[in-house]
Amino acid sequence: MNNKIVLKIKKTDDALDLPLPKYMSSGAAGMDLYAKVKEDVIIKPGEIKLIETGIMIQLPEGYEAQIRPRSGLALKNGITMLNSPGTIDSDYRGEIKLIIINLGKSDFIVKRGLRIAQMIINKVELPEILEVSKLDDTKRGENGFGHTGL
């Protein structure tokens, strides 16, 4: 029995030279996405830039793609993504674009083809929504942020 899904990927006309997203190891959960910039983009500390990837995807209904930062860029350079993880819905057909922020102390240069983010494919369950006047009680109840201590 084959449980694999098909992820269809279309490159934009100006990204034909860039690799398709790919898994960098046999156990990787995320596939790397590449920066599609015409020329180097400098992201100064505290600055936010929109970086295009040059790909559009088609997922089966019931799936999403989550776009996440790469841990190495975050640790070494302070580069991360706002709206993380970003969600690509199964009915979206536009180019995947990344909201990148530099939380580091130095300028960061995005070069064409840089592995800039990762994409993870997940199954999505759509529940039936039922409005109620009371929820079941639990030991935790309404205790939220930091209720269990450090």
Considering the chains and any ligands shown, give keywords for the structure:
150 residues, mainly beta, Deoxyuridine 5'-Triphosphate Nucleotidohydrolase, Chain A, 4-stranded antiparallel beta sheet, EC 3.6.1.23, nucleotide metabolism, magnesium
Provide a quick synopsis of the model:
By secondary structure, the protein is mainly β. The chain is 5% helix and 34% strand.
Describe the structure.
This enzyme is involved in nucleotide metabolism: it produces dUMP, the immediate precursor of thymidine nucleotides and it decreases the intracellular concentration of dUTP so that uracil cannot be incorporated into DNA. It is an enzyme of class 3 (hydrolase). Its EC number is 3.6.1.23. This protein has a domain of 99 residues: Distorted Sandwich (Deoxyuridine 5'-Triphosphate Nucleotidohydrolase, Chain A). The chain has one helix and eleven strands. It is globular. The chain has 150 residues and is mainly beta. The mean pLDDT is 95. The protein starts with 7 loop residues before the first strand and ends in a 27-residue tail after the last strand. The strands form four sheets. A four-stranded antiparallel sheet has the order 2-11-6-8. Strands 4-9-7 form a three-stranded antiparallel sheet. A two-stranded antiparallel sheet has the order 1-5.
